[in-house]
Amino acid sequence: MTGIYIHIPFCMSKCPYCDFYSFKGDEKQKDSYLQAVLLSLDGYADREMKVDTLYFGGGTPSVFGSERIEKIIRHIRESFDLRENAEITVECNPSSADEAFVRGVKKAGVNRVSMGMQSAVDRERKILGRHSGREETERAVALFKKEGIDNISLDLMLGVPFQTTESLDESIDFILSQGVKHISAYLLKIEKGTPFERDEKNLSLPDEDAVADMYLHTSERLKKEGYIHYEISNFALPGFHSRHNTRYWRCEDYIGIGPSAHSCFKGKRFYYSRSFEDFLSGKEPIYDGEGGDEEEYIMLSLRLGEGLDGKKFREKYGRDLNKAVFEKAGKYEKAGLLEIKGERIALTAEGFLLSNTIISDLL
């Protein structure tokens, strides 16, 4: 099975914390981009290739329009074996998800939606540059549910300017009130070259200890509500994890289309440059080495709540995990940062906060 990611680089405006490749774009650029995407897909076309996840990310795919998204999905159906039960996700901002868009993507076959809200608190939302508040989010959620798309994810950002545990609870309460199946809770990272980096000293950011407390608080609250903490930043009700994103963490095949999009396909990694012009001109992706080796598999598996399974490792690579991995893991288990159950090693929520350090040590 293979997944396909389509990067839509268009946004209404650029959020001050965002370093994803995106710009406003006009209708002519969007039409040109559609044709470039279809042409790029043709380079992989294979009616025998089974595709079971398709993800439109960005940017803001909803500003690309449902008609263009429908044309891409139709083209994929004609060029690949897009499975009947495929998970087809589209990202959108609540403010740009009007009735026409919702009906259009439903008709096209979209069955999962990921919406960027980040905060339900106006003060936090505005400094993040987010246009959609509670009313827009409630309206968008209701529209998707009305059209039969109830596999909905909402984004929540932790450690944002002015945020406290109390204001975080306000956002969590709102998200829970919407009855969504999935929640992504990301720690704010100050990216190089963004307005937030240039103004970091004036942002009134909570300190590291406060952010760590918010993360653990979020994990505990959502677990009590029945959500599974299945990946460092992701929570889902049983059966509603993101199948597409889980593919990345399990080192499974996926093809990325569009400027800045990455692929891991048939043991190779490659990516498109961060250039709209390069993509439109048909410039080939850049080779980025072998993909899915043992070290990468261990690293990505430990991002998941299910953790690293020695049995699955043996089935995939034909040998046992190095004993030193379990020996080193023992000291972290004593500290409550991971759990060892038989051949499985899994980080706890506290361990997720120190995942980079722990994983580096285990490797």
In short:
This protein has 363 residues and is α/β, with parallel strands linked by helices. It has 15 helices and 15 strands. The protein has a nine-stranded mixed sheet with strand order 7-8-6-5-4-3-2-1-9, with helices on both faces.
Q: Your description of this structure?
A:
The protein is of the alpha/beta class. The chain folds into 2 domains: about 1-250, Alpha-Beta Barrel (TIM Barrel), CATH 3.20.20.70; about 295-363, Arc Repressor Mutant, subunit A. It has 15 helices and 15 strands. It has helices spanning about 25-40, 65-80, 100-110, 120-125, 135-145, 165-175, 195-200, 210-225, 245-250, 275-280, 295-300, 310-315, 325-335, 350-355, 355-360; strands at about 1-10, 45-60, 80-90, 110-120, 150-160, 180-185, 230, 235, 255, 260-265, 270, 285-290, 310, 340, 345. The strands form 3 sheets. Strands 7-8-6-5-4-3-2-1-9 form a 9-stranded mixed sheet, sandwiched between helices. A 3-stranded antiparallel sheet has the order 10-11-12, with no helix packed on it. A 3-stranded antiparallel sheet has the order 13-15-14. α3 (about 100-110) links the parallel β3 (about 80-90) and β4 (about 110-120). α2 runs parallel beside α3. It is globular. It starts with a strand and ends with a helix. The model has no long low-confidence stretch (mean pLDDT about 95).
Largest sheet: 9 strands, mixed
The total tally of domains equals 2
Helical stretch tally = 15
- Proportion of residues in extended strands: 15-25%
CATH superfamily of the largest domain: Aldolase class I
Q: In which order are the strands of the major sheet placed? A: 7-8-6-5-4-3-2-1-9
Radius of gyration: 21 Å
Distance between the termini: 28 Å
Oligomer: single chain
In percent, how helical is the residue content? Answer: 40-55%
Under CATH, the topology of the largest domain can be stated as TIM Barrel
Gross morphology is globular
CATH architecture of the largest domain: Alpha-Beta Barrel
Summed over residues and divided by their number, the pLDDT gives a mean of 94
User: Runs with pLDDT <50, length 5+?
Assistant: none
What CATH first level of the largest domain would be assigned?
A: Alpha Beta
Instruction: Summarize the helix and strand pattern as letters.
Output: EHEHEHEHHEHEHHEEHEEEHEHEHHEEHH
Number of strand segments: 15
Helix/strand structural class? alpha/beta
